[in-house]
Design a protein that fits this description.
Blueprint: H1 5-15, E1 25-32, E2 36-37, E3 41-45, E4 48-52, E5 58-67, E6 76-81, E7 93-103, E8 123-132
Antiparallel strand pairs: 1-2, 1-8, 3-4, 4-5, 5-6, 6-7, 7-8
Length: about 130
């Protein structure tokens, strides 16, 4: 199944609406590209996305769709989950959706030799919705 654009993300969410609130986990995190804080830990490596719950369960996945968000905000995103590892709430998660983003756009600073090797932390806020098939 191919997804493109916000309409496709909304269609996916509508088609997979979860009636049981126990099956839907919404987490508001304040995160950075380099590290994170909050209930879940999130790691980003190149094309891999991963989330770890305090109960030890982990899920990773690959980006399926991305849609520009508002000015100055990191893009909305849909990630198809791989099978989770560890027993816990991440078991059975099939998609992860990033919505309601604020911030996260890297500064518009040109790369120069004086900045070489320096690390820039760009903070953002987002809601992450973890979907399970019904």
């Amino acid at each position: 199944m191919q997804f493109s654009g916000i309409a496709a993300i909304r269609q996916f969410a509508h088609e997979n609406e979860i009636r049981d609130s126990q099956r839907r986990l919404e987490v508001m995190l304040q995160m950075t590209h380099a590290a994170s804080c909050g209930v879940l830990r999130r790691a980003i490596w190149a094309d891999c996305h991963a989330w770890e719950h305090p109960d030890g369960s982990k899920v990773s996945g690959a980006q399926v769709a991305v849609v520009p968000a508002g000015a100055g905000a990191i893009a909305l995103q849909l990630v198809k989950a791989n099978p989770a590892s560890g027993e816990g709430v991440m078991q059975g998660v099939s998609y992860i959706q990033r919505v309601a983003t604020q911030g996260g756009v890297p500064p518009n600073t040109p790369c120069t030799s004086t900045l070489q090797g320096q690390r820039q932390v760009v903070r953002y806020l987002a809601d992450y919705i973890f979907w399970r098939a019904g």
